[in-house]
Amino acid sequence: MPAPRHGREPAPSIRDVAAAAGVSRQTVSRVLNASPKVSAETRRTVMEVIERLRYRPNRVARALGTGRARGVTVVTSDTMLYGYASTLQGIEEAARVEGLAVGVRVVESDRESDVRNAADYVSDPSAGGVIVIAFDAAGIAVLRALPESLPAAAAIEPGVPVVGRPAICLDEQQASAEATRHLLALGHRTVHHVAIPSESEHNGRLAGWRRALDEAGAAVPPVVPAGWDVRSAYEAGRVLAADSGVTAILCGNDDIALAVRRALFEAGKDVPGDVSIVGFDGVPGSAYWTPALTTVEMDFAGLGRATVAAVLAELAGEPQPAVSLTPPRLVVRESTAPPRAHGAR
Amino acid sequence: MPAPRHGREPAPSIRDVAAAAGVSRQTVSRVLNASPKVSAETRRTVMEVIERLRYRPNRVARALGTGRARGVTVVTSDTMLYGYASTLQGIEEAARVEGLAVGVRVVESDRESDVRNAADYVSDPSAGGVIVIAFDAAGIAVLRALPESLPAAAAIEPGVPVVGRPAICLDEQQASAEATRHLLALGHRTVHHVAIPSESEHNGRLAGWRRALDEAGAAVPPVVPAGWDVRSAYEAGRVLAADSGVTAILCGNDDIALAVRRALFEAGKDVPGDVSIVGFDGVPGSAYWTPALTTVEMDFAGLGRATVAAVLAELAGEPQPAVSLTPPRLVVRESTAPPRAHGAR
DNA sequence: CTCGCCGATGTGACCGGTCACACTCGCATT
DNA sequence: AATGCGAGTGTGACCGGTCACATCGGCGAG
Which Gene3D superfamilies does the record match to this protein (chains A, B) (predicted)? Predict the structure, then answer.
């Protein structure tokens, strides 16, 4: 039989520390938890022993004792897409400064069994607080499937109703309207929209775009839907590229903008000479595109941090803190310009 | 005082199930762990009760009982950069199919205190197996700081020595050499290289490039270093863009390629007309760039999956399985072409 | 018929913390 | 002098599983 690879004397436990310090385990526990009911002297002694023994409290045992884990578990359907990944990053950061462990559980799809598995997974008290990134159907389904009693919060797109728990979103509508107005102000007759998948007709990007168009009295062209994959956005782009009436496109995110720009390129159309495009999200590379992309910068990391605050409040049974998120904001760069002069017509 | 928001009858425990099924808790435990020493009939009864009570075993209690957690914790210095994020994705996927929980702990920097904190964090047995994404100094430092006894594996860049634990890497050297040869074959006199930060002089991207140059008898220009941020890559690009002797650039990753391409654009140079560029990584959008990027596709997700297998073997005390990773491969697209004819000179 | 063995099941201790509560002081109050 | 009180500390039970070992009934072998 193979030698026990990782055999080793076990890590010191709280009892070892207590014995070495000549106090009870409870006193050590108090020191660990910064209880005020320990004399300064005792505290110092215990601290020294802890240091000497390199003692580290066992998170698992602690969680079992208290009944809840000092941590959060993030449920998401994706970890790579920019919005998801940055939200996750914000969550991780905030959790880390709070001393919380971070777990990740991805939901494969919005199929019922997948949703149930994910919900079951986080229903385990060891999951701690739960944060659902509910930017899509799968996430929303998990959010709905969570037992009422579970301390949870969600990052979500605007317009999706959530009852009974904090759901935080970035107000995209203003910025979307602003982006649309920007294009209109440049002289475009109207603005086309390639939309990301959405669970809500009231989603901010769509709503802001439509509102700005309405307010300007511009025609509202049919929405061109795209998926999360670049390929489908490319297909959508080809449709628009073939239409000579299209001079301005508001893209549901920067990936879509990339694909649309490619489709335009293949159709021999110049950006922004022939067609202006605006993205959404503000991925780090977008400033370095050629042309640099005009886009709406979204503070997903801030959103993530806010969900951590929310779930922490939920865990503590406190009322939800008022959060002020930095609102999405339009960054005008090179991909938008006035339409070609119509004099030639 | 606020009402207890999440008060609720506690989840059923194994004892509840045992009582309801008329068996002992140990028998229930055996059913849960698929022990063969349970009669088919008893097993069925217990299963039914479990279903009826919606019982789910408590991961924390189980971990405490067995002494080790059914999960892996990933240590990384970044979660957004493509290589890191895709590796993480691969890990998550593999862990999920194995029924393992996934934790994430980011190391803020390679400062000693940060490294120690991260190492301490995962030294807790509740962290389970540990996977270190050691693509940079911080990751490598954590890997080195881990106690010998800890079951861990690493995803790492080639050329960095690691002793005592499985360290898996993608062989970038072949592909890097191939990319360089591709450019040379196109007629370029030599190939410049903008490098990602690396902890090793023997790192694959650098080594393959140099080797191919040497073998072809081409001059080896000085390496232009860049950081992980797009900005620094842009600065590096400007230097190269100002040099009219530069006709081909091998970029350390696709982000760098993006920034270099931008710098070239600003300098009035066409890609691939004036300068050819090759990226590294194969980010999903690279196929949709204008021009579409010639790049080396890396299977980071596969790398991540392999580390899970490795840490699992480590955990079980088994010998390391032989892994066959899909090797990086050059994908030729539009950003590479023969240099402009020199006749004009 | 008795023994031994095996499959199936149960029992108590234990993992490493925390909780609720009890206890022991020393000092101020009545 | 008895009482009250609060700060500081210790004790036993417990969280929800698992482990090691004991037990029990039935069956084939000696």
Answer: 3.40.50.2300, lambda repressor-like DNA-binding domains
Q: Of B264, B305, B298, B310, whose CA–CA distance to B196 is shortest?
A: B298
For B290, name the nearest residue in chain A, comparing CA atoms only.
Answer: A262
Split at pLDDT 50, 70, 90, the class of A344 is very low
Enumerate the nucleotides of strand C whose atoms come under 7 Å of any protein CB: 7-12, 14-20
**Residue B129 forms contact with A (CB below 8 Å):** no
Q: A209: phi > 0 → left, psi -120 to 50 → alpha, else beta; which?
A: alpha
A80-120 pLDDT tens trace: 999 999 999 999 999 999 999 999 999 999 999 999 999 99
Same domain? A239 vs A285: yes
Answer yes or no: do B163 and B308 share one domain.
yes
Residues listed for chain B: 345
How confident is the model at residue B6, as a pLDDT? 46
Determine if strand D comes within 7 Å of the CB of B32: yes
Please tell me the distance in Å from A257's CA to the nearest CA on chain B. 10
Q: Is A257 helix (H, G, I), strand (E, B) or coil?
A: helix
Give domain status of residue B333, yes or no: no
Q: For residue B271, tell me if it sits in a domain.
A: yes
Cα–Cα distance, B249 to B336 (Å, whole number): 9
User: Each residue of A282-316: pLDDT tens digit?
Assistant: 999 999 999 999 999 999 999 999 999 999 998 88
Q: Tell if B64 CB is < 7 Å from nucleic strand D.
A: yes
Asked whether residue B247 falls in the same domain as residue B260, the answer is yes
CA distance B252 to A91: 29
User: What would the two tokens of residue B241 be?
Assistant: 């863009």
Look up the CATH number of the domain holding residue B24. Answer: 1.10.260.40
Q: Would you report the helix, strand and coil content of chain A in percent, each value rounded to 5?
A: 45, 15, 40
Q: How far apart are CA B186 and CA B248, in angstroms?
A: 10
Residues A101 and A179 in one domain: no
Q: What is the pTM of this model?
A: 0.94
- Say if the Cβ atoms of A265 and B290 lie within 8 Å: yes
Domain boundary (A260, A277, A297) is at A297
Residue B264 inside a domain? The answer is yes
Within 309-338 of A, beta carbons closer than 8 Å to B belong to: 314, 317-319
**B245–chain A nearest CA distance, Å:** 23
Report which of residues B160 and A202 the model is more confident about.
B160
Looking up residue B309, the CATH number of its domain turns out to be 3.40.50.2300
Determine the residue of chain A that is closest to B264 in CA distance: A290
Strand runs labelled E in chain A:
71-76, 101-106, 129-134, 152-156, 167-168, 192-195, 224-225, 248-251, 276-278, 295-297, 329-331
Alpha helices in B204-285 (DSSP H): 204-216, 230-241, 254-266
Chain A hits for B64, CB-CB cut-off 8 Å, are: 58, 60-61, 64
- Looking at the structure of chain A, the number of domains it has is 3
One domain for residues B127 and B275: no
Same domain (yes/no): B224, B291: yes
Among A residues 251-310, those touching chain B with beta carbons less than 8 Å apart: 255, 258-259, 261-262, 265, 284-285, 287-290, 292
Assess whether B81 and B158 both reside in one domain.
yes
Chain B neighbours among A 197-256 (CB < 8 Å)?
A: 229-230, 234, 255
Q: Is residue B345 part of a domain?
A: no
The range of the structural domain enclosing residue B200 comes to 172-297
